[in-house]
Design goal:
The protein is mainly alpha-helical. Helices cover 63% and strands 6% of the residues. The strands form 2 sheets. A 4-stranded mixed sheet has the order 3-4-6-5. The chain has a two-stranded antiparallel ribbon with strand order 1-2. Strand 5 and strand 6 form a beta hairpin. Helix 3 crosses helix 4 and helix 5 packs across helix 17. The radius of gyration is 25 Å and the shape is globular. The N and C termini lie far apart (78 Å).
Length: 537
Amino acid sequence: MTSVRALSVDTTQTAVRRALPYLVLTACSVLYLYPFMRLLLHGPDEGTLIYGAERVAEGQVPFRDFFEAMGPGTFYWLAIFFKLFGTTWVATRISLLLTWLTTIVLMFHLSRRLRTGFDTVSAVVLLGSLFGPLWPTVSHHGDSTVFALLSFAVLLWSLENPRPILFFAAGLLAGITTWFLQPKGFFLFVSYLLIVWLLFRKTSKVRSSTLWLVAGYAAVSASVVLLFWTAGALPDLVYANVVWPLTRYDRANSVTYGLGAIEFYWQRWTTTLVPLFSPVLGYCMSAILLVPFLLLMALPFLLVAFGAFKRSLAFTRATLPYWVAGVALWLSEIHRKDIMHLSYGSPLLLILFFYLYPRLRLRWWSSILQFVTICAFVLAAFNALVAMSARTEIDTRRGVVHTFSSDPVLAFLNAHSGEEIFAYPYLPTNYFLAGAKNPTRFSLLIYRMHTNAQFREAVRALDVKKVRYVLWDRGLDDESVKWLNPLGWRAPGQDELIVEPYLRQNYDVIFEHGTVRILERKGATAEQGSPAGLASH
């Protein structure tokens, strides 16, 4: 009896010891992430996704009732949170917090499996390098990444314990990843088939393992097809997720490798830090913050070099899944080679890097890795300080948000909650925050990416519905967006414009803040005087 109790105590203590690092990491991560969850950044994709999720929660079907190029996953995923917690800003932050908390824990877990010795650094590099353009915002890149990492963790488990249910679950989660971001889930699934073949090809397990992977992936694919077929939206799904990206995305994705590291980060840091400190100190601080970005840009080349010169160390049974799945994730994001996509494509390659390079047993490599680690944590701390400096509270229809300055445009929209207001070319967050309605099927319209027919459809909707107010962001006109796609971008000529002539002919400017103009339709009812929400600005 005593031995049984002792065994039970030992088992409990072992479980606690194993769980303790994860519990501590979770608590620390929540404390770190909280300031970011308060922040409104008007991210480039977030507005599209959260307003689309609101539409789904109200019963609309993506691609049939509104047109977007993202996979349907995030719309439905976030709609679940709206059903549970209400259509509020808090619901979007709960979803975002869960996504990134799970990502951090999974990257920590996958690093510990390899015993990298840098278990938290890969997650810190990923998180730090995304702050600004894509984070902290709801993103199909972030949602697909967390399901991809979860799927990969299950795959590793199934390789150690070859049971059908585990391979089925790995394939199922890869299918769910495809639901969020098509290339990421599909490439990941193909990588799993390759991993199973490489590791089990000389055993009888290869056939059954492959079949169960395929079954899991096919189950999700069939469910999505059935869902949209029963809604009469299958042709819309195929067009928006296959035909349109293949025929239009090359116009938006022709960018230089690592675009944004210098244009978005370095230039902003030096512009801010050099005047605050001395030029030498300001540039040194900016250089330290830039190191994680340089690592991400160099990462594929460093790993190729290691694999070429240290094959016996690089390619083992333990590392092979990280190589194959890591390359698959990287390729799934490389359709656009800017720094943000490189970051989202690199989680497994980062883990592999911090595992392999300490094994060079060279002193200078140890010093370099320690320096990179310090720079990553400095970047994370710097980002947190920036997030905490956002102290302006704005009360919206969806809850209180924090920004770096006041937003009179949002104040105007709050006064017109429930109305149809068209935001052009890309201000979809305002629809959600103000409880406004988009009278068109498009949350964004970009020349050379969207078709002329889509532009004309939006104009027809404005004309038929006699939409009273339009938000027009002139900051996305002309040369100001050239840095987004410098290789393939050309400003449209005056004879190519479709929306702008209609707006100038049928609307008057009633307010302007920064690059955003508020337009009111000519001949609209004038008895109300000045539009509510503008008098105090």
